[in-house]
Amino acid sequence: MAAPGSDTGEFESWLNDRLDALEVDREVYGAYILGILQEEESDDEKEDALRGILSAFLDEDTMEDFCKKIINQWTDHCSKSAVKSNADDAEVQAIASLIEKQAQIVVKQKGVSEESKKRKEALLAQYANITDDEHEDEEEEPMSAAAIPGNEKSLFKNTNVDEVLNRQKQKREQAREDAQKKKESDKMQREKDKLAKQDRKEKEKKRTQKGERRR
């Protein structure tokens, strides 16, 4: 299960330190590992996906231990984030309740002011002292946040959420693609190194055999 919210800074800092210690590209592998943890549902699925990426630079024994450390650290981060999210939700609810009460007070005061305005207009009209400017000033009512239709606010909020989710999805997909390319490149380099090492051994073996024949 993904961590509540999007604040993964503390976990990313921990992960980057571990990747730096392994001399691994934190930009590529860090983003890919984070995407796996946020998308996969169960710990087994997370571990399988992590093995696929970590096998590029870790042996079997080291990889298993590293996978468990990552998942444990992520689980701990999710728990802390959930507690913080619940506290934030309670604060938001309290603010929303206060705004609603203030909006009700504004509506009530507006009703009273309408009656007062009518009495004033009648009195001023009786003495023929009312002016157009005064009329316009009295009729103007400041627009409050409560006047914004609920469906428009909801649409604005939903649009922002969709944009953020899309950007996060694109970032994870790009990170996955970069990590795969990096993994293939590392694998090719290891094969080249392996072949070069075997070639050196063969040459050394031939030189040794040639020296023995000369004796």
UniProtKB/TrEMBL annotation:
Sequence ranges of Basic and acidic residues compositional bias: 171-202
Region: Disordered, residue numbers: 130-215
Composition bias, Basic residues: 203-215
Keywords for this protein: Coiled coil
Compositionally biased spans, kind Acidic residues: 131-142
Family per similarity comment: Belongs to the CCDC43 family.
Descriptive protein name: Coiled-coil domain-containing protein 43
Source organism per UniProt: Gouania willdenowi (Blunt-snouted clingfish)
UniProt lineage: Eukaryota, Metazoa, Chordata, Craniata, Vertebrata
Gene that specifies this protein: ccdc43
